[in-house]
Specification:
The chain is an alpha/beta fold and 601 residues long. Helix content is 43%, strand content 13%. The N and C termini lie far apart (58 Å). The structure holds iron/sulfur cluster (SF4).
């Protein structure tokens, strides 16, 4: 293969990801590549698109296109009738949400300021959620609902792929073949595409990269990456294009269809540092796919375990992102939910991979879980201090899969020893080592919240999923976190093979009890998905299931259809679990027998 001498790479976060803080992948890679003397720049196309779309100028265009449509819902007619209000308010809303004009809180927190749309909460609901002193959050919540109304209008009248924090996710969520995506890419540009490409093209002209790398963490980033790549191939065919990230790592490992290479040149897998370094420096490629001149996919060192050690990947570099107008959103009034979409967080990892790595539903065969590697705690806290200095923010979201209690102890001690004031939150496994003493230490060092998988609160299923915890130890650790003032979010799962209706009901009973005692503040139920990279997907019989997939699909492969001898109505139970938990999060419904939630669903 021809050697490529690369001078400059532009790393792109494609629309749409979270809007309150930069997604960490490009910052990590930029920091690493710069430390290896490579000219790396980055852009967050996601927030740039939203910032450009939600302006008076573009909203006027949105309203014009929307009013020329033939089918328009009653709700959207109301918005169009009040277009003057929306046009007058959109710029102040964006200034407020991005923290550039906080004085607007007093106006925006007043319910009477807003049009009477379906989303507008009652005064009682607002009083309950924010009291009389939470004016800033209350205003943020009302502004978020205002943007959601506009997003719905855009989705239904202009671009069916548009959602406030996703783009074309439903199109790409399950994509066994590339054809449906290709059909969309062959359509004329939508208004949103045009805005996105306008921003992207300016960046290309300004930075003149030799290489563009798209980080695609979720299905909702695939379409926009390929739209940009398609434009790039047309206008700047000499620029090489690569794509990596969570979606590529999990879904495209078995790809045999070459059509995606009409848009991009390379797919890279697992941690991107080494594959990118080799691509850019012209060294031997690693975990890289490309299409050769015979239209065959070449998989170069695809199974290589070679990586840059975690201690040598360097600190993330946020240059090029800090000037963006990130916006705070509060959609749900739950305080734990607000952490995900509200506030700027420095995102980094305390360690690579998961120290447990044995849960049967989890992608434990993939490098991002399987390879557990830590670094000296002094180095981690040095990285934190570097980031604080660079971003001016002291809040950290440690995006580890599961931070170990031993590591969190060392971290807390080091933060306290250095006398630095930070706040942080992370994922954990609810194990017995989270004693009152450790939780207190963590809280003292700045831990404000944790999330973790309780999964299925049934002793039999907990054993089957090999979580290595019991309900009792989980309950004990949650209690210890709560008593130290640390908020807890529990990830829960339903529909695990062989799980019975009674076990699902019992599971909800445990969750109800945890909420009522104040030991968790937030929870979310995911339907179990059998993925090809999990122990249960690799050996479905081991969990009492039978795979219904005969051979891999030629584009994306991740979830495996399966059957068991004990099928329950997952739609109905999923609705019941979510309805009950939504009420518990609002502090309501504890007195309703758990069975009743499923009757209502
Ligand atoms: S589910 Fe969490 S604790 Fe279990 S292996 Fe995966 S990352 Fe580790």
């Amino acid at each position: 293969m021809q050697k490529i001498n690369i001078m400059k790479i532009l790393l792109v976060i494609p629309p749409l990801t979270q809007l309150n803080t930069p997604y960490p992948a490009t910052a990590q890679l930029t920091g690493f590549l710069k430390s290896r003397e490579i000219d790396a720049v980055q852009m967050d196309l996601s927030i740039s698109l939203i910032d450009k779309l939600f302006t008076k100028e573009n909203l006027e265009k949105v309203f014009k296109i929307a009013s020329s449509g033939t089918t328009i819902s009653k709700q959207h007619k109301i918005i169009l009738q009040q277009s003057e209000f929306y046009l007058q308010t959109i710029d102040p809303v964006m200034r407020f949400l991005s923290g550039r004009d906080s004085s607007l809180a007093q106006r925006f927190c007043n319910r009477d300021f807003w049009p009477r749309t379906k989303r507008l909460p009652s005064e009682d609901d607002l009083e309950w959620a924010f009291g009389t002193i939470g004016n800033y959050d209350r205003a943020t919540h009302l502004c978020t609902l205002f943007l959601k109304d506009l997003s719905d209008l855009i989705q239904q009248t202009i671009d069916p792929h548009f959602e406030l924090i996703r783009y074309a996710e439903s199109l790409c969520l399950r994509l066994p073949h590339f054809d449906p995506l290709q059909a969309e890419l062959e359509k004329p540009y939508s208004f949103i595409d045009e805005l996105m490409l306008d921003i992207f093209s300016k960046k290309i002209v300004e930075t003149k990269p030799d290489f563009v790398g798209f980080s695609v963490p979720f299905p909702g980033n695939l379409y926009s990456s390929l739209r940009c790549a398609q434009w790039l191939k047309l206008k700047f065919p000499d620029i090489k294009i690569t794509m990596g990230g969570g979606y590529v790592n999990t879904e495209l490992r078995q790809i045999t269809d070459t059509a995606i290479f009409n848009y991009i040149d390379y797919l890279i897998y697992d941690d991107g540092e080494l594959p990118l370094l080799r691509l850019l420096n012209g060294g031997e490629l690693v975990r890289t796919l490309y299409r050769d001149t015979e239209n065959q996919i070449q998989r170069i060192n695809f199974d290589s375990k070679e990586n840059i050690p975690f201690s040598e990947i360097g600190s993330p570099d946020y240059s090029g992102l800090l000037q963006n107008n990130y916006i705070n959103l509060i959609e749900l009034t739950n305080p734990m939910h607000a952490l995900w979409s509200n506030g700027r967080w420095n995102k980094m990892m305390l360690a690579h991979g998961c120290y447990w790595g044995k849960c049967t539903f989890c992608d434990g065969t993939l490098d991002y879980i399987k390879r557990y590697e830590s670094a000296p705690i002094e180095l981690i806290v040095d990285r934190m201090e570097t980031l604080m200095h660079q971003t001016g923010q002291s809040g950290f979201h440690f995006v580890d899969e599961a931070a170990s209690p031993a590591l969190l102890r060392k971290l807390s001690e080091e933060i306290i020893r250095r006398k630095i004031t930070v706040s942080y939150w992370t994922n954990v496994r609810f194990e017995k080592s989270f004693t009152p003493e450790l939780c207190y230490l963590m809280a003292k060092s700045g831990c404000i919240a944790i999330s973790g998988g309780l999964e299925v609160a049934s002793p039999r299923i907990l054993k089957l999923i090999n979580k290595g915890i019991t309900i009792e130890t989980a309950r004990e650790s949650m209690k210890n976190f709560a008593e130290s003032g640390i908020m807890t979010h529990a990830y829960l799962m339903y529909g695990f093979p062989t799980e019975t209706v009674q076990e699902t009901i019992d599971s909800l009973e445990v969750v109800r009890d945890l909420f009522e005692n104040g030991w968790i503040q937030s929870a979310f139920w995911h339907r179990y998905a059998m993925t090809i990279h999990s122990p249960s997907g690799q050996n479905p019989e081991s969990v009492g299931a039978k795979s219904l997939q005969t051979q891999p699909d030629n584009f994306a492969n991740n979830e495996i259809p399966f059957s068991t001898n004990n099928e329950i109505n997952l739609e109905k139970y999923g609705r019941g679990l979510n309805l009950a938990t939504y009420n518990y999060m609002q502090g309501a419904g504890y007195d309703i027998p758990v069975k009743k939630w499923f009757d209502k669903a």
